Amino acid sequence: MELSMIISHNHSMNTKLAEHQNRLKKAENLSLPLSEALKLLDGLSQFELGRFLLSNRGLNGYWTAYIILYSMKKESMHPLEHWLLYKSPICLATKERFKIFQEQIQAHLQDNWTLASIPCGLMDDLLSLDYSNKTNINLVGIDLDESSLELAAQNAIKHDFKNISFLKKDAWSLDIESQFNLITSNGLNVYEPYDEQVTLLYKQFYNALKNKGILITSFLTPPPRLTSQSTWNNINSDDAIKQQIIFSEIIQANWQTYRTEEQTRAQLNEVGFEVLNVIYDSKGIFPTVIARKN
C-alpha cells in the first residue's frame, strides 16, 4: 500500500473514532460506564475486523466467512477480537447456524440438483459440502457485491468445483423462475426493518425455486432486553452486556432487525411456502428454517 493511501486510511479511521467517541460521551443510559465503553472502542480500532465494523456497521462476505471459518487459522489476535470470535453470543450462534445449514443442505441434497446461495458471499455454505456421492450438481452464487463474487470464484477454484456460475443481482430483484432445487440464504432479513420487504424477498425465493424446491434460511430472534418471550438462553450475562454495548451502542450495527418464529412462519406461508422445520441453535439466537415450495 502506498504511503499516501496509508495516511488517508489512518486519517479516515481517526475521524471515525472521534465521531464514535463524541457520540458515546453524549449518550445516556450506556450498558457500561463511559470509561469502559471508550476502552472497548479503542480496542476495536486495534484490529482489522474491529475497524471494518466501526466503519461499516455490518459485515460483508469476506468478514462473515472470517468469523465462521477463517479466523481459526489465525495464530494470534487482539484479546477483544478473541472475545468477539469465541465468546460473543451472536458470533457463536452464527458459527452454529452455519453448521446447521450445512447439515440440512447435505441431508436434502439429491442428484441432478441446482443449488443457489443468495447472497453467496464467499460461498462456503455450498462449496465446502461433500458431493462425492452425488452426480450432476450445479451451483449458482448470487450477490450484489462484486468483491464477494470475485472471492467466491477464487474459492471455487480452491475447492476445484467446476459446475458453478455467478450472477450479480439484487436479491429483491431476482426475476428468476423455477430454476433452483434448493436456495440457501442467510443475512439479508436481519438488515431489513420492514416486514413487507422481507415478505417480498421470500416471494423472490419462492419464484426462483422449482416445484417442491427447498429454501434454507434463518432469522435473528429478539433478545431478552426487548421481550420477556425471548428464546435466548445459556448466555453469560457479562458477555450479553458486552455484546450489547459493542454492537448496539458503539458500532450501532445495522443488522439488528429481530423477528420471532411466528412472524417468520407467517411471512413464508404468505408467499406459499410450507415450513417443514425450525431448528434453533443452542443459544436460541439464530434459528434455521427449512421450507418447501408447494
Description:
The protein starts with a helix and ends with a strand. The protein has 294 residues and is an alpha/beta fold. Helices cover 46% and strands 15% of the residues. It is built from 11 helices and 7 strands. A 7-stranded mixed beta sheet has the order 3-2-1-4-5-7-6, with helices on both faces. Mean pLDDT is 93; it is low at 1-9. The longest helix is centred in the N-terminal third of the chain and has 24 residues, at 3-26. It has a domain at 91-239 and 250-293: Rossmann fold (3-Layer(aba) Sandwich), CATH 3.40.50. Helix 7 links the parallel strand 1 (114-117) and strand 2 (138-143).
Short description:
With 294 residues, the protein is α/β, with parallel strands linked by helices. Helix content is 46%, strand content 15%.
Give the topology, please.
Blueprint: H1 3-26, H2 34-44, H3 48-56, H4 61-68, H5 79-86, H6 89-108, E1 114-117, H7 124-127, E2 138-143, H8 146-158, E3 164-168, E4 180-185, H9 195-208, E5 209-218, H10 237-250, H11 261-270, E6 273-279, E7 288-293
Parallel strand pairs: 1-2, 1-4, 2-3, 4-5
Antiparallel strand pairs: 5-7, 6-7
Helix pairs in contact: 1-2
